[in-house]
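Posting this for the archive.
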Amino acid sequence: MILYPAIDLKDGQCVRLLRGAMDAATVFNDDPGAQARAFVDAGAPWVHVVDLNGAFAGRPVNADAVEAILAAIGDRAQVQLGGGIRSVEGARAWIERGVSRIVLGTVAVKDPQVVRDCCTAFPGQVAVGVDARDGRVAVEGWAEATEIEALDLVRRFEDAGVAAVVYTDIDRDGALGGVNVEATAELAKAVSIPVIASGGVKDLGDLKALIAAGGIAGAISGRALYDGRLDLREALALTRAEASAGC
């Protein structure tokens, strides 16, 4: 299982939201590049970045901050980026700048052909972001609810060449209440696309539970890393040991 430390960008700063509410943001660092470098210095092979303003605006807003992250870590780690990417051209712009994987969320619901076109254009570099509240998908920065079940959405892309699904339980995101292991594991077992857990990871116990569930490809953690509840080096050692054991 791969651990992805998270950098959520709002107004150029590293923040964490509580259950996706933009007015409930806590600023943890005003230097995104330095934060990314710290994660990579600790050994992180990936950094998960979200342009929160972009997710609401439907276009990149924190481009300067993302550029700073890319410049700070160079080729030492890979960047997975979501938020405001709604077209093949938008995806191409970031991949050409050095982003290793783009995450498409809102557009996966509103214009699924874009996901398929991106998978064709950028093989192995496209993930689908599935953000769910009570099992149903939310879009537009989680501000708009749909009646689409998370599993149904993922199944639409089983044959598209999607590299991963980032599954977020919105009600647990930033709340430090524990990851939704059961729902994540059920999704991972129901589809062939690798599933990355997001939302609520609070400590090593959550990572151990995800590993024990089996079949979960990765986990994203933000607030727990920033406030010290989860030690990044210790967490990386755990996930590497699990990978070495072939679990």
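The mean pLDDT is 91. The CA atoms of residues 47 and 161 lie 22 Å apart.
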